Amino acid sequence: MTSSVGSRELPRPVLFAAGVLLVLALLIAAFGNGKTTNTNDATPIVASYEISLTTREDGSILPRLTDGRALPAIDAERAGFVSGVIRGLARGRKLGGIDALAPYRLTRLRDGRLLLVDTSTNTSLDVGLFGSDNARIFADLWRAADVLTGNGGR
After folding, report:
1. Using the 8-state DSSP alphabet, how is residue 22 labeled?
2. What angle do CA 68, 142, 81 make, to 5 degrees?
3. If we measure between CA atoms, which residue out of 59, 150, 76, 71 comes closest to residue 106?
4. Over its length of 154 residues, how does the chain's per-residue pLDDT go in tens digits?
5. Single pTM value for the model
6. Is residue 145 part of a domain?
7. Which of 29, 101, 120, 134 has the largest CB neighbor count within 10 A?
8. Within a domain: residue 2?
């Protein structure tokens, strides 16, 4: 008796999203121990922006400064990584009973690194650890916030 099972290929975006989530889960497990990155060494904070990240129905993400000014949207193709990061951080918020819509802090260190900080859960992620393409998404957000605010990060 033989059975024939049709082969169905998964759509490429689904495989990509699964890969991003897997990598994110491994990185959070390895580095996301709930403690902030030690930034007091030789890497003082240069400036930071408080931003909210809202996922739209089309999969894109709309970042906003806390004063309501919109930064350029992250298109759905590039938003998969950011969505994965947000989901990972949102899980920590949910477990702690913390407001899921609270803003995140994007922080630039003197050595050039960018951190995405969830001040609600005291979690800090060095976005450079996720590779240059993914870090570039956050660097683009930083530059857009600099332009919008006249280069005056807080």
Report:
1. H
2. 95
3. 71
4. 555 555 678 788 887 888 888 777 776 766 665 554 444 455 799 999 999 999 999 999 999 999 999 999 999 988 988 998 988 898 888 888 988 889 999 999 999 999 999 999 989 999 999 899 999 999 999 999 999 988 755 5
5. 0.69
6. yes
7. 134
8. no
